[in-house]
Amino acid sequence: MNKMFGLMTAVCLSLSMVMTTAGVSLAKERIVFGGGPAGGTFQFVANAIQVYDPVKALTDYNIQAQSSAGSTENLRKVDAGKSDFGVVYSGEVSLGAQGLLTNDTKKYENVRAVAFLYGAPAQLVVRKDSGIKSVKDLIGKKVGVGNAGSGAFANCELFFTHMGIWDKIERNALGYNDAAAAFGNNQLDAFWLFVGYPASAVITAAQTNDIDLLDLGADAASSGFYDKYPHFSKLTIPAGIYRGVDEARTSFQDSALWVANKDVSDQLVYDLLSVIYTDEGLAHMVSQKKTLKSMSISSGVTGIVTPLHPGAEKFWKEKGIL
Asked: Could you tell me which of 232, 147, 235 has the C-alpha nearest to residue 193?
């Protein structure tokens, strides 16, 4: 009898523990934050938010960073509800909502902006003695155009198509580090990036080659690119950022945005912004990636040309930004 009673007690305790564990698990709603390729800034953003202690202290939610190909994939997954949050370029959010993405007429209307993260400028690396002075000189050349599914690839296709050369180059869909390695091995004549400077891949390329950056801003201005795509803004990459690039180069940039599916809880969006956009939260983000020094209360809605998530709208109104 005592043995039977002991066995029943053990079974009851085990069931109780399982139910308790299940209860804890059920209490924490899994929230997916779409980042990007390993080592890229998008993935640093997602990881930084996931590991921040005040975010982990939000008792109802379990934020999980998930790698992706980049901006375009994040746009599609957030729109479909497969990711709750993601990092997407402002231009892709805008063009996607209108059904104007290249070779994709679907309207991605379920994506809402949460906050500005940083500006990402276009950079095109060539060898200093290559004779390539304009993107039109790339015709017939081997060019790294970014990995498929990334914002870098999408913006490269957009700009090169506008310039009339997309189908006239030998395209290599490579991530930045792979492109830098291929460039160093003389397998590429040039490679494209859409990322904050200084970019580690360009620094790597400059260690083994005499490099230069094309003046993309000049090509953009003379071709009417800014008139056709007003979400891009002009900027100058200062001289001396990369070894051997001793003169400033003009270019254009898009804004990398934190976005959410429209059905994500208003309270969750508000709570996350409330813990990230503090002095401690912003310092944490910069500690994970220096590119994120652009994040601030004052820059919170920079480059956003599409609707804000209601939770974000409430937050930014309280901060006096809207």
From this structure: 147
